[in-house]
Amino acid sequence: MQNFQVNSIGKISVNERGMFIELEPKYIPALQALDGFSHLNIIWWFSDFDNKEARNTLETQQPYKKAPAVMGIFATRSPIRPNPIALSVIEIIRIDYEKGIIQIAYIDANDGTLVLDIKPYTPSLDRVEAPGVPEWCSHWPQNLEESRSFNWEDEFNF
């Protein structure tokens, strides 16, 4: 098994002013030319679930109400996984290019969560027009915008 070294490029900040990605100063130049992109792919670390037990959990009991009784971790969006890496598509509200701060609409990460990488969301590479999903989640929203008003609490068993 090969080990990899991954370094954070910044962190998530959640406070009374909103949600932000705050870059380490050395990564601020990497923001150049993001003007015009409305969304980003954020790769971040599920740090609250980085322990031996979570990394060795490969199956889980029905996390979603309409899902199968037992699911493999790779069939879930659970933070409990062999490598606690998360991927979220986020909407950009504003970028402060001088301070290296990206204000975002929402991310399901905690304050202080480490950010590993940022990639621009591009429909030509990231969007699938007609994705297939299992029947148990086929009633979920078809896009990020519809997800805002969807009652997600009715879907989970946790």
Automatic annotation (TrEMBL):
A GO BP annotation: methylation
Highest classification ranks of the organism: Bacteria, Bacillati, Bacillota, Clostridia, Peptostreptococcales
Keyword RNA-binding: no
Protein name: SAM-dependent methyltransferase
Keyword field: Methyltransferase, Transferase
Molecular-function annotations in GO: methyltransferase activity
Cross-referenced Pfam families: TrmO_N
InterPro entries, A to Z: TrmO-like_N, YaeB-like
Residue ranges annotated for the TsaA-like domain, each copy included: 6-130
